[in-house]
Write the structure tokens for this entry.
Amino acid sequence: MRSSVIIFPGSNCDRDMDVALRKFGFKNQMVWHNDKSIPKSDLIVLPGGFSYGDYLRCGSIASKSNIIKSVIDFANSGGLVLGICNGFQILTETGLLKGILQQNKFLNFICRNVFVKVKDKQNKYFKDLKKDILELHIAHNEGNYFCSDDELKSLEDNNQIAVTYCGEDGAENEVTNPNGAIKNIAGIFNNNKNVLGMMPHPERMIDKYLSGEDGSLFFKNILDNFK
Amino acid sequence: MKVTEAVAIDHGLKKEEFSKICELLKRTPNLTELAIFSAMWNEHCSYKSSRKHLKKMHTKGKQVIQGPGENAGVIDIGDDDAIVFKIESHNHPSFIEPYQGAATGVGGIMRDVFTMGARPIANLNSIHFGSPQHKKTRNLLRGVVKGIGGYGNCIGVPTIAGQTTFDESYNGNILVNAMTLGLVNKNKIFYSKAAGLDKPVIYVGSKTGRDGIHGASMASATFDDKIEEKKPTVQVGDPFTEKLLLEACLELMADNSIIAIQDMGAAGLTSSSVEMASKGNLGIELNLSQVPCREEKMTPYEIMLSESQERMLIVLEKGKEEHAKKIFDKWNLDFAVIGKTTNSKKIELIFDNKKVAEIPIDLLAENAPIYDRPWKKTKLPQKLKFDKDEFKSLKLSDCLKKILSNSNISDKKWIWDQYDHTVMGDTIQKPGGDAGVVRVHGTNKAVAASVDSSALYCFSHPLTGGKQIVCESYRNLISVGAKPIAITNCLNFGNPEKEKNMGEFVECVEGITEASKYLDFPVVSGNVSFYNETKDKGIKPTPTIGGIGLISDYQQMLTMDFKTEGNLVYVIGKTDGHLDQSIFAREILNEKKGPPPTVNLFNEKNIGEAVLDLSRKNLIVSCHDVSLGGVLIALSKMCIKGKKGIKINSLKGLTNKYEYFFGEDQARYIVEIPKASLKKVNDILNKYSVHFDELGTVNGQSIEYKDDINLPIEELADAHKYWLKKYMDS
């Protein structure tokens, strides 16, 4: 499976993502934000970080960058686009995903492990995933997902909510919600479920010496579904 | 403006220093020249009070590639890999403006590291605040933590460990010490020594603004009532630009275009240009009209003194300008040829086609004043005689809970949750352990790092305190299974013009030197911060040690959490029960006098080597050093982290349980041993002739000791985990 990771000035999880993708057998390439086109890919990843310094609003300048039109075209033609953390913020700014990511409820940056519940498996990311609850890692200041009532209703009606914050036992409530996100939302799909944006970083959970290994399941599953 | 003695004094120079400048120059300097002198001759840049004593430090060792004197120290960790590291203070600015002060402290130390060609792989910090009851403490803490996180998180370098303490002596002067480790190929290290004539001098990075002017002078003076007026001397950081600068510099460093490179830190363009020329024994000519400026009509004076962040000065190979410019253009950074190296051995400044300053380099560097300040020895205080009858009214379990929730012992999760500690995907021991550990990317090696200071011990007896912190650093590294290699130090003290403060400095340095020599744990970089004093009230002497150790196979890393029920727990090293200066004495008995625990360097080394031997042979499964708070506090942390209890044995020959459990004797570790390894462990400990106590067995969900303690781990965890969060929320 061929993947491309876009590097924006200020991206800082690009290398981690490259390491993770290669570890599981993706043929990955790095693409510079000023390029106009993307090499032939089966998956495009917008990595975490602080693209363009997060100035103006997180992800907003990146959503106007040279490369982004190719990303949007690719998504609209059904290609898999994955945005992690800042990548998720960029995807909402492009309009590929609904809603926005506000500053965390308690106004602090949060870096720690969280549990998320996989809400939908009818898609190329989570189909046949062995687990329903994953332990992943978050590291963000603006991860507090918000959208209008209408948007929320359509996300729910179309099963576009991808993952939600929960406890180890699956409980979704205020205590298990690290950042105040509406309905504990940690990640969502677009209408066709080929575009996935999520705050947690699977690339930081790929061997037992790191924070955990559930990220490995995530990447392997994408590959398995591609075969 | 006409330069007079009064103007010189306004610039922080002493009367005698101004006379010396006029005498050396054989004329009165103009204002720009005076500014340059004031920047180079202040304490922060010239080390004029400390240099004499720093020379005695132990700085050599077979793994040392670069000792003090460069942007950072460099050590060899095998296979062509080297670690570049340094710690630096940003105390004064952080007290005036906590967010920007702390943020630019982190930015500055990272630049020192990547200037040498290394990619930063880990950040640490040691931060010290006034009493929790002081009205400024909460906001200062919040601002500093946000500043450190705001900068480090954005760059994408994990913050892997740190230390936070509270003491009323920091009420008017908080301490913010930031440390960075970088990884470099040992054959591709870049230095600040210029070489060759007529080589282009390049300015890259952010534009120069009016921020931070007089920053270095501000950091070389004490505070008074008017500190609010000093806010403009605090620099403003832009981590995004620094990230671009980091990537651009590393890209340019991939070939051989750079001759010398120096970041513009304290005293900005002045200090960077003078240092590069001085080290290369050359002259340097700068055309200040070419310097990219953020604001209009900046004068040569302002340009030379600005401490705008995220800027570098490079001496480039001739003909490489276009190649270099392309890289900086790609990263949207300013790039300007602003001068050249010369054989004049002077710094010459041109502005609007006129020469505006001309000073021989050696007057700024070698001829800068050096002081042999008078100092006073601190006598070892009398050991206290505690009234043990008084202990009878205490309850062991109440004391334990109280100490666990002490501001200096309690868990600091509230802080490090705000630091990205996992980015770069190699953090294998997170903050909260004895040391942070990151893997050397793509290898089996890992580097451990720890920051430590013990102001109470150093205040009580500086010589012992100086030794103790080096030992503490050594122990913290061994506790995670790392072999200690080298240290960096940040020497935070009061006013060197006072004999007592100067004495504290001299004797702490002596203690550090003695211990680092004995333990073969050399000092390779560091920084001195004097004048941590407000309205005549100085801080307790707070030298901070940043230690680095190597784990050759990261699978052998140790953590402190108890692992398996039934495993045995030993205290290695002898417990005499030294309560003077302990947390127990302060918190429970309200007793602040007495000497710190004695440091026995032979024991430190011998016991350390024994424990390292056990870990290398995979005979122990967890390890934690016993320090602040004593055995019971160390045990409680191991229980809380492992979510497992311990049944403590009735201890033979125990004189007093309070002394045993809360004494802060040095050179001790607690280890967890699987039963199958027991014989081998005993043999090794006997071979090293090391004292050990069979403390107990990992068991259940409570900490139990005879009839005295029976506390569920959850209750301990509550006492330990929430003090800081509650404090910040209140």
